[in-house]
Write a structure and sequence with these properties.
The complex is a heterodimer of chains A (144) and B (139). Chain A has 144 residues and is mainly α. In chain A, 73% of the residues lie in helices and 0% in strands. Chain A has one domain. The longest helix of chain A is centred in the last third of the chain and has 24 residues, at 117-140. By secondary structure, chain B is mostly helical. Chain B is 65% helix and 0% strand. Chain B has 6 helices and no strands. Chain B has helices at 2-20, 25-32, 41-60, 82-98, 102-107, 114-133. In chain B, α2 (25-32) crosses α4 (82-98). The chains are: A mainly alpha (144), B mainly alpha (139). The interface between A and B is large, with 115 and 119 residues.
Chain lengths: 144, 139
Amino acid sequence: MISDRFAPALGLAGGALIGLAAAGLMLADGRIAGVSGILGRSLAGGRGDRAWRLLFLLGLPLGASGAAAVLGDLHGFEITASLPRLAVGGFLVGFGTWVGNGCTSGHGVCGLARGSARSFAATLAFMAAGIATVFVVRHLAGAA
Amino acid sequence: MRELAALVCGVVFGAGLLVSGMTNPAKVLGFLDLAGRWDPTLAFVMGGALAVNAAAWALTRRREAPLFAAAFALPAERRIDRRLLAGAALFGVGWGLVGLCPGPALAGLLRGQLPVYVFVLTLVAGIAAAQLYTRPGRR
């Protein structure tokens, strides 16, 4: 059974924009558009490399909210996790992406596009863990 | 120019996240929920992003250097080791608990939603904790 939220055309269009942004950052600055890595290295502060990282990160909310202002909030925003679950989830995402050297953007969008076997393995691992977690939460524990 | 290019790419990336629907945690969880009412959108987002980025990389990699920097900064690490897989698996658990990963979480910061602030703060705390844990010598 397919969800009524399924939006393949907007998914492809938004994905193409994400791919364009990642391609642009590589062509212009020679950098991988991996959000967790850029965020983590902006914290550590790598002299001279901090400005571009902070500006890229600043662009994310500006671009998303700007697009929502122009096009409308196309898909809405629904979050069901309680605050404790958000905190555990946030910590695991931060810890895991730093230890595993990447997230959905760095491994999933950039690494796969470069044909990296390492990124392919990481993407399989986080997809499998995400699918297993949702299965446990929704279908075994019966939570939202 | 390097900074301006990064800002423009961030804006386009954020706009892409919004258009794709990946800024809505319910859509991400809908993709991960294979046993429920499945939402395959995320696969189309990845497909669109990979098609464009892989085509661009085929051209960009022929260059000696990027436009505004001395060299391409590419990961040297090639090994698929326990650290990579364990980190990715922990990330996947957190992703499945909430439906947010780092890009969409930051992209949602101007929505004025408390859950997004909580997630981003703990995300930063998680990265900082991992940076301590993975200090040189532990690798």
